[in-house]
Input
Amino acid sequence: MGGKRKKGGKKGNKKSKTVDKEVEFVCTVKPRQQTEQEQDGDESEHDVQDQPQEVQDQQQDVHDPEHDGDHEKEQEKEHDQERQQEQQVSNEPEGEIEHTLEPEVGSCRKRKRGPTMMRDLAKDPNTRVHVDFTFMGEAYGPGSVKLSSYLGPLVREHVPVTLETWKKITEEVKTVLWKSVQARFEVDEEYQRVAVLKQMGALWRSSKSRLVTQINEAENNQQRMNLRPKNVPPVEWRKFVKLKTSQEFKVLSDSYKERRRKQIPHTCSRKGMVRLAEEMKNSSEDPSEVSRLKVWVKSRTRKDGTPINTNAAEKIQKAAEIATGAKQTGKNEDEDTLIQVLGPDNPGRMRAMGRNVSKTKLACFNVNHKSISEMQEKQLHLQKKVNELQSELAIVKNQREDNEVGENSAARSVNKISQKRCLLIDWADEEGNVGEGCILSSDPNDIVNDSRLGPSDLKVLVEAATEPEAFLWRPASNMCTIKEAVGHIIAWPKNKCVELGLGLDPEDIAPLGSRATSLNKCKLLDLSDDDVVVGEGRWQTKEAKALVNGLPLGPKAVKVFLDVVHEQGTYLWRLTMDLAYLEDCVHSFIS
Output
């Protein structure tokens, strides 16, 4: 009977303590299981009530003095067991979802933006995003936005928050981070690597600060354990939570909070000073007018034009007064205005210049930027000169007066004639005057239209065309008629050039002799002597448009296939760069 009384007493005591514990303690037990426990407790109560009156009377005897000592010992054992269970639950690291018996008040809470994951960028690793950088090595433009959004989740995944400082990160982790960024962004230079790693460090510190804030706002240990990142072991996380919730850390945090309250916040959000400055330069007519002061004022002004707070309004008004006074006195308004408004810059950082920009670094970059700008200006000037020279060269391409000598050939004597005016007689008509020009040279080795002049021609600059449609003696790739040759240098037969001022008439010049031809076979006569047969061949056509060595044949000319050469050293009628003598053209077509 005594054993039964003790059993009944323990059951009722356990029931009451279980109900109290479920109301006060937050754990990971599912609501359905809690309901079952409550039902078990109710059943135990009904069992007690359904017992006979005799048994109930015996249970009431538990409070007798003779049983008080044993009952207190059993209660102390039960309390010790419950404390151990509660300690195990409080130290349990796993548990990401909380369930309470009370209705959740957070269901009406405002939905907040979660951490950036950038899953859309990770889906397409084969297409790299282009990122622009300033001359100081800071990223800007549309690509920098995606870069910043990608670096945040990347560094949170690979670098645990339990790391004391960013400087203690290993080179292996830096290499992994850099390779991952290179796989998705066009960043290959060393200065880009330095800038990206510094940006990662800043993003890592910001995420760590936000996490510490959530730890301090948590109400119990279970909520703090739910904040544990996946890359942090439970043991390390408990040490981290203990450190960040200590009194020493609270004193240090309060001191930095006090410093932050003295600062003037900006309105750039994620844009930052570098992107804001580049946007202002792109929208400005003169990018050089965008100074550090203007960037700072813009960053402390809302979209409606009002300052962010009263302190910012006072500083902006003071800057405007200083700038007005500088203009009236004729002084140069530069970066010193911002220093007068806000005081001197810190040694390691300059205001409104982006991340990690110091005075020494800025001075070095300004020197390099100035040198590069001067080189670019010189390059543009030289490119302009080259374009002008190319235009002039295209105009006077065929008007070269100096002799062209090959690299491997010796200098030759030139028999130049003074530039005398002359009439150009039609080489196909003995009495037709086709144009006027100036005689430049008679050296047979001169180059005219990529061909040697030869002994029977003159180098002539065409000034006017009397018969515009008259064919040239030697057509070129860019001109075939005398009209197209105006302003250019051509070759013309000596006996068809009449120098003005010598009192000669066209009929005084001996005409070209007639050529004896047969049905197909023909004899080739010397240009200067009709009695000398220089070779034999077979003529093919007299069509003026027929091509010989890539040039049209022209009127009163014959396309001949050369079979035999009788006179060695005889010049061709139309010389080329490769063919000069008749024996060079055996078994080929000539004109």
About this structure: Residues 359-395 form the longest helix (37 residues).
